[in-house]
Design goal:
The chain is mainly alpha-helical and 172 residues long. The protein contains six helices and no strands. The N and C termini lie far apart (43 Å).
Length: 172
């Protein structure tokens, strides 16, 4: 649902249908939570799902951050840090695979999960404020978004260190 919701949210934002954009964002989050809960309950974890889930998160987060920055609701430096972290991590893991021919197991860190939570919460807040600008939450939302950027940078450095450690401890 998250991947399918991305174009709908962007189109809703483009046409200033902020309530619809917020509703689609919430629906994407609820269906993701239900899907995850059902998968855990039924113990049906698939390799495809393990790849698609973080890609769906990244697609939703990055697309909405860029869209919201273009509307002046997310500082550009926040978007730059978050996009840079993702590019560095993807590039680093790709380089490690190119150099070794081996795929490093990538597990989310606690700070990575916190960064994603802050990003999604900040995006939700920005969408809510577009729809309901009279709410007095702008300062809180900016704190969330700026915290997301800081935690994202820290998580990115953790992933870089993990990659370097993995590379250095491999047998030649």
């Amino acid at each position: 649902m998250r991947i399918a919701a991305i174009p709908g949210i962007v189109i809703a934002l483009d046409y200033s249908h902020f309530g619809l954009a917020f509703a689609l964002f919430i629906a994407a989050g609820v269906t993701d939570s239900l899907d995850g809960a059902i998968a855990r309950m039924m113990k049906t974890r698939t390799e495809l799902g393990a790849y698609l889930d973080p890609l769906a998160d990244k697609g939703l987060v990055l697309t909405l951050l860029i869209s919201l920055a273009s509307l002046g609701k997310v500082p550009e430096w926040v978007v730059t840090i978050i996009v840079t972290r993702d590019v560095v991590c993807l590039g680093g893991y790709s380089l490690l695979f190119f150099l070794t021919g081996e795929q490093m197991e990538v597990r989310p860190s606690w700070t990575g999960k916190l960064a994603t939570f802050l990003q999604i919460t900040g995006i939700g807040g920005a969408l809510l404020l577009l729809w309901q600008p009279q709410l007095d939450l702008a300062v809180i939302d900016q704190i969330l978004l700026q915290s997301a950027a800081i935690v994202t940078a820290f998580a990115g450095s953790e992933y870089v260190l993990r990659g370097l450690q993995w590379y250095q401890t491999r047998p030649d």
